[in-house]
Structure formats: C-alpha cells, structure tokens
Amino acid sequence: MEVLVAKHAGFCVGVERAYKIALQEPENQPVYMLGNLVHNKQVVERLRARGIIGVHSLSEISAKGTLLISAHGASPEIYEEAKQKGLKIIDTTCPWVKKAQKIAAELAGRGCRVVIVGDKGHAEVKGLLGWSGGRGTVVETPADVSNLTVAENCLGMIAQTTQAEEQFQNIAAALRAKFANVEVHNTICGATSHRQSAAIEIAKQVDLMLVIGDKMSANTNRLTELCAKTGTKTFQIETAAELDPSWLTGKTKVGVTAGASTPKWITGEVISLLSKIVL
Ligand code: SF4
Fold this sequence. Notes:
Blueprint (H helix, E strand, L loop, with lengths): L1 E4 L7 H12 L6 E4 L6 H9 L2 E4 L10 E4 L6 H9 L3 E4 L3 H15 L3 E5 L5 H9 L4 E4 L2 H4 L9 E5 L5 H14 L3 E3 L5 H14 L4 E5 L5 H12 L4 E4 L15 E6 L5 H13 L3
Parallel strand pairs: 1-12, 2-3, 2-4, 4-5, 6-7, 6-8, 8-9, 10-11, 10-12
Helix pairs in contact: 4-5, 8-9
The protein binds iron/sulfur cluster.
Iron/sulfur cluster (SF4) binds next to helix 1, helix 4 and helix 8.
Pfam families: LYTB
Organism: candidate division WOR-1 bacterium RIFOXYC12_FULL_54_18
Cofactor: [4Fe-4S] cluster
C-alpha cells in the first residue's frame, strides 16, 4: 500500500511560529493564553501541561504574569487592559494578521468605513473590528451588502486572512456596484488555498483519503469536505487511535493531509501506523 502525503499539510507558518514562541516562555511565572492558541485539543493539552493557563477574558486574571496573544491577534483594547493589569505581553499575532490590522487602523484613521469580510464570531475578526476604531462592519456574504448603509465618504474593504478568494471577490463586486470610492485590500493569506489545492490534488490520485485534525477546526472540516467532493472515500480523524484498519481493506493508495492547526507529531503517528498495517 502506497501512502501519499499532501505537500501543504499541518501547521501553517503562523501557527508554527505561535506554538514555538509559546513553548519558549519560561515556566517560573504564570503564563495565560487568551483564547485558543490553535483549534487542536492535543496541542492545547500540551501547552496546559507546561503550565499555560487558558482564559477567555482578561477579567479572569488577577495575578501578575505573562499574556500570550494568539496568532489570530487581538484588539488594541486587549493590549491596553493587559498593560493596566501589569501583564507582560508575548504577541504571537501572525504577520499576515498584523498587516490586516494595520490597514484597518489606517483606513479608520482616514475616516473611512472598514468593511471586514469574515466570520462575525471569529477571534481574528473581533480583533480587526477593534483596530477599525468603531468604523468597522463585518460582511459575511454578498447578500449582506444590500442591507449595508455607510455614512462615511470612503469605504475600505479587508478580509479575515482565511476567507475564500471567490467570496472575497464577489463581495468586492457587490460593494463596487453599490458605493463610490471603494478601496479593496486583499488581506487573504495563501496558506489556506495552498493547503486546499494540495489536498484535492492528492485526493484525486488515491482510493482512500485521511484528513487529520480537530473536529472543531473549521479549516480541517473544510479540507474533509473538499476531499470528499472529489469522489474519493474520505475520513477525518483527530489522532492515530481513530484510524480503523478495516478502511484500508482492498486499498492500494492512501492519501494523507492535515489542517493548519494539526501538529507534525500527530500526522507522523498516523503515517507511521499506516506503514505498519499489513493487510
Ligand atoms: S492561516 Fe495564514 S494568516 Fe492565519 S495564522 Fe496561518 S499563516 Fe497566519
């Protein structure tokens, strides 16, 4: 049985960087992590085992210590609140997200409405709204544009870094058709689309596809959907323990990919188990 691994699989550069920085933090003082550093239970457990304490809000922190800002970033209010609490900040915001935040602040500084294409509940989008200084509006679909009213004379559009390119372009077209002075800043990062194309390419060549990642990870679930759409039987697993050997019966080529929040050690365990299964 041959195992083909997708070219872009597992941690994206932003998550890899955030994880490495988090592990470097000395353990002699409390380290708090605002939100999930990544959407992966095994990674979060590993960080917890090193004494990193997860919090949903800074109001949960009463002692001095270090605050880790995740790769998704945070609003300026969070930095200010952390400073006032005397917390040392370790900022793991991905450089791509930082770039989008900078554009949001610059547009708002010029008095423009900032339209953010993204998922309303996502931490990155909440941070971008903060950087838009009260001038931000989140748009999820082209249909949302029809209800949009803008008091400002200019409008700038940015995106959550993991948005689909097609959706972004459709929303840009809807905004341009409705408003004058629309500035479009494409802040989508290439990591998601590269991972998706690589997964589809492999899924088309194999007779079973395994997608590794947390069921709570939106980008992993999307990879599973896209692989299944190719017509190849696809299973999503969180760890090697979920791999059912009966899936491999009669299969000659198996494809493997992993979401942007899946660490190398889990993908490695699955590949190693596949190589040991003799059918
Ligand atoms: S998906 Fe892109 S923007 Fe988001 S953390 Fe990864 S590299 Fe950064």
